[in-house]
Amino acid sequence: MARKYFGTDGVRGQVGVAPITPDFVMRLGYAAGMVLAKDYASSSRPTVLIGKDTRISGYMLEAALEAGFSAAGVDVMLAGPMPTPAIAYLTRALRLQAGVVISASHNPFQDNGIKFFSAHGTKLPDSVELAIEEAIDQPMACVPSDKLGRATRLRDAQGRYIEFCKSTFPNELDLRGLKIVVDSAHGAAYNIAPHVFHELGAEVVSIGATPDGFNINAGFGATAPKALSAAVIEHKADLGIALDGDADRLIMVDANGRVYNGDELLYLMVRDRMATGEVAGAVGTLMTNMALEVAFKELGIGFARAKVGDRYVLEVMQERGWILGGEGSGHLLALDKHTTGDGIVSSLQVLSALKRSGKSLEACCSELTLYPQTLINKRVTPGFDWTKDAAMVAEKEAVERELGDTGRVLIRASGTEPLIRVMVEAKNAEMADSMARRIADKLAA
Description:
Elements: E1 11-14, H1 22-38, E2 47-52, H2 57-71, E3 75-81, H3 84-93, E4 98-102, E5 111-117, H4 126-136, E6 151-153, H5 157-167, E7 179-183, H6 193-199, E8 203-207, H7 226-234, E9 239-243, E10 250-254, E11 259-260, H8 262-276, E12 281-285, H9 290-299, E13 302-306, H10 310-320, E14 324-326, E15 332-334, H11 343-357, H12 361-364, E16 373-379, H13 390-403, E17 408-413, E18 419-425, H14 429-441
Parallel strand pairs: 2-3, 2-4, 3-6, 7-8, 7-9, 12-13, 12-14
Antiparallel strand pairs: 1-5, 4-5, 9-10, 10-11, 14-15, 16-18, 17-18
Helix pairs in contact: 1-2, 1-4, 5-6, 8-11, 13-14
């Protein structure tokens, strides 16, 4: 059954445009509350934790969600601005029934979204999302006054999460002697990430840490790493760490300002785990660079591709019993450390690998050379099906014949925005770029 409201990462869109409107979000909270209450076998009320990033619209949507949950008889704990993976952790640690994050991740401030975590700190199963969608379309009611949910503020949410992040770094190691630039994208980790690295001993230069409600992801963070590269060079730092608006993505920069994406960081994490134990395999996505697949094959490491989206990476990891996986965009998962992708936790895994090896980021990734890859995003009308665009399909097939087994073509619709993504990998950057443009230019306007 197709989902009507939920995409690959919750419900997302432009604020003020359906479904990201106060009335819909209140109904969403009510529907989710009714589904949770129905499955909650206890005499006490279920409790959910709500966190948000730094968008101005978060205040409005938080109030709407709170009202919806209360009307369904569900108690609410408010965490304020917190990274998405922090809500996953706190939901599990506090034994709550669900966690909710108000965020549009790497999107601009005009967008926002709602995503849910289960009591186990994982994304909700499709079956539960479908149950919530069915409930949304039912008339909204309200429990009796004596059954209404209450709202409370969670004390020291930031401190609890900082300590959790630090606990994923080896006790015998520290970050003394490292100068790190930390870019929080003016997002949810602005008052958390710098503290984590500082408390582990690093000298920290913090950028992208002055949110005003409108500047989230604007020129800073994992989707705009130029600011981080410049800051690393300016401050003569050893490396840089960039998160996105909700801090579930990680991009890193070496001392020379060179950017390392999720594929390279996953490779580094796998190599480090191989040095300390056995690694059965790792999971990437349809977008993962071919070089990573080839490298893992040479190392005798299993590799599997999932659909794009960290929830699908997680599903394949769980199916195969593997603990490492990720996306080139910077979503990285280490299931022995956290239940979901976490930019801060992932960066600590990379930093522990560097510390154990005694090498720089550049040296640790020197054996992996990514294939040139061009990605072009074309905005389309919602619901557009590129497979019915005859000219685009024909050009894709022509490019694939030219590439043979020396490259790849991938076309897919974004799960969070009305975009068609055209990706080409080829022998050289010029070929990848020209072929991707050939295909994208065929897209009907």
